[in-house]
Queue: 2 jobs
Job 1
Amino acid sequence: MRIGFVGAGKVGFSLGKYMSEHGVNVSGYYSRSENSASEAAEFTGTRVFEGLEAILAESDALFLTVPDGEIEEVWNSLRQYSLAGKYICHCSGVMSSSVFLGIDHKKAYGYSIHPLFAVCDKLQSYRELSRAYFTIEYSDERAGEKVSYWRNLLESFGNEVRIISAEQKILYHSAAVFASNLVTGLFKTATELLMACGFDRKGSEEALYPLFMNNCENIVSQGVTGSLTGPVERADAMTIKKHLDVLLGDDKMIYTALSEKLIKPAEEKNAHRDYSDIKKILEH
Ligand SMILES: NC(=O)c1ccc[n+]([C@@H]2O[C@H](COP(=O)([O-])OP(=O)(O)OC[C@H]3O[C@@H](n4cnc5c(N)ncnc54)[C@H](OP(=O)(O)O)[C@@H]3O)[C@@H](O)[C@H]2O)c1
């Protein structure tokens, strides 16, 4: 299987390098700018192609590692060529393979293959990709019959793989946002509250790092229930009430919603503790 990449950005660089390091035959790169394609080809020891037709001729599978907003346009350009038997993949977390409109008539196979990972450095991220779960979603029954190729390939690299449906993709991607970007939003909220107590921005961020890191490490090592501490876990109604008395607007709303979310794991952790008081406070 020769795999070509259309779009030489962070994911194109990283997946191409990751695959070639695992012995996959990566044919090379085509990108909007020849500079990016050349740099990626040099990085992976592969070729530069000057157009879609050229990379298609030398590839059995194409990964469209372009921004989400460009996938449809690249597909529309690709579909003017013969695609019978080709595998067309994109890596968007939120979009499904349904963006490959008419792929069944072209007798090609469509997939979205998404690494659940922040690929932030085009030269370094490939080193960490072995830790990523990948999800695969496919366009139709025919593509489903061939999905084991992609699953086996990724599993042979040591990655965990899950198959999801097109209907699940948006919900799936929102999970990724909750676990990453929205945590940043919570961290920002915490720094603002410290700044309201007189900390400067740098000091407020630095003061929270040990708490933040320690909690992340505990979640990873002990799971959500095992790692849970704080006023909800302790069923400390008085502290929660005090917090709600001073928090305002969105901060109060977020605090309430997330505290409610923690009651179930707290009950699992402490089966004999009574959480009825804090449930009442949070409901009001
Ligand atoms: N970054 C992440 O953390 C991450 C994680 C999982 C999945 N993804 C998905 O991976 C895909 C790529 O994301 P990315 O972060 O790698 O984006 P990126 O770093 O912005 O790279 C996209 C590349 O595509 C090229 N490009 C743009 N329009 C093009 C077109 N019409 N034809 C050919 N090449 C074109 C760009 O061109 P030039 O450089 O040539 O100008 C750029 O190098 C997206 O679908 C994204 O959702 C990203």
Note: The mean pLDDT is 97.
Job 2
Amino acid sequence: MSNAPNQELQVIDFHIHIGLREHFNPSILRLFGMSNPALQEQISEFMKPENIVSMLDNYGVSRAVVLAEDSPKVTGVVPNEFVAEFCSHYPDRLIPYASVDPTENPNPAETLEQAVTGLGMRGLKLYPSYQYFYPNAYQENPQMKKLRKLYECSVRLGIPVMFHTGTSVFPGARLKYSNPLFLDDLAVDFPDMKIIMAHGGRGPWFNTAFYIARMHSNVFIDISGLPPKNLLRYFPKLETISEKVLFGSDWPDTLNIGANIEAVKNLAISDRAKTQILGTNAAKILGI
Ligand SMILES: [Zn+2]
């Protein structure tokens, strides 16, 4: 296994987290520590743009999507401002995605607009199981009409929206909100919105996520948080949706991004599919 950057193969990690100790709730820090023990003690010291970029260099990763997190009820708050400033040191390498809690925030569309036009952020991450909302709640819940405005805003700004889907180990997460089936409604109602199902419906809904990605040209799966060696068990027909699948690590919730890249390279799928999953699909979404 080589850590040298691979000239031919572009690898983009579509899903990493950053944050300082004070951003995360204590139970989350404990779980980060179980995945990544060396990081736990010195998380705030390590979280510097140059350290992240040199880690990406070691693994041959050209770019990473860096996620903010506005989930005060469960995991914590990694502010948009923090992530935008962090990424601004390496604008060609680190791509900041905003987060907004559509339940707590009275005007999430306005927050998103400010994050994109004011802070230069390039996507939106929503965490339904930590923020406690059904992604399609704009249809029936009068209090969640603001969700429709949020999605309309993302379409107008031309930014993708990533949703956490499937299981989570974080205490307080409510699984019912993270069923990818709700995203089918969004794919129909907002055909111009690029929707990314993070973790591919992990656990109970791999099949649901697969069929939704296959049905809708605007829906993608990111494989973060899944052991890549098992991908063909979760998605036996992975090859048929290879243009809809994005590599992601979920670092620091994984120890070694390089091992995950190697595991994708070792899958029994075509070289074309591996190239798409590891980088070219992401490059298209990012407009590179
Ligand atoms: Zn994640």
Note: Residues 12-286 form a domain with the TIM Barrel fold (CATH 3.20.20.140).
